[in-house]
Design goal:
- The chain has a domain of about 100 residues: Gcn5-related N-acetyltransferase (GNAT) (Aminopeptidase), CATH 3.40.630.
- The C terminus is likely disordered.
- Strand 4 and strand 5 form a beta hairpin.
- The chain contains five helices and seven strands.
- A seven-stranded mixed beta sheet has the order 1-2-3-4-5-6-7, sandwiched between helices.
- The termini are far apart.
């Protein structure tokens, strides 16, 4: 098992997932709007899907963290970095619960998250909407282009 970082901004805490997160995870990620805005989240999303996800989040090439409000610890979404070390490539993905859309996460947090390792990985933005707000200096490129 690998140790994952906890990252903090003035408003957010990004921390490793725990079994206790399933109760908050399933209703947030299970919204039809979340599945429609992502490539890898199923709808409907069940408690078993959440348990399977937590198992995958512990694999060594995955860095998947809860996005929580710093002041009260409430889970509002998730962010992940899937690393392909052989090709020095990483895919960044994130989701936020519908009540938090447009309210909490700015492009600078996504760029800082991708650049947490001293190695330079190309972070893939997997949708045109995400790519339009990703900072170019962080090494983002469009995977569909």
């Amino acid at each position: 098992m690998h140790t994952l970082p906890t990252l903090e901004t003035a408003r957010l805490r990004l921390r490793p997932y725990a079994d206790a997160d399933i109760a908050e995870l399933v209703p947030l990620i299970g919204a039809r709007e979340v599945a429609a805005a992502t490539l890898r989240i199923a709808h409907p999303y069940t408690e078993q899907d959440g348990r399977d996800f937590l198992a995958l989040s512990r694999e060594p090439n995955n860095i998947w963290l809860v996005v929580a409000l710093r002041h009260d610890g409430r889970q509002i979404g998730g962010i992940g970095l899937r690393v392909d070390q052989k090709h020095q490539h990483a895919e960044l993905g994130y989701w936020l619960g519908v009540p938090y859309w447009g309210k909490v996460m700015r492009p600078r947090q996504r760029g800082k998250y991708c650049a947490t390792d001293s190695k330079r990985y190309n972070c893939t933005a997997s949708s045109p909407r995400t790519s339009s707000i990703m900072p170019r200096p962080a090494g983002f490129w469009r995977s569909w282009a």
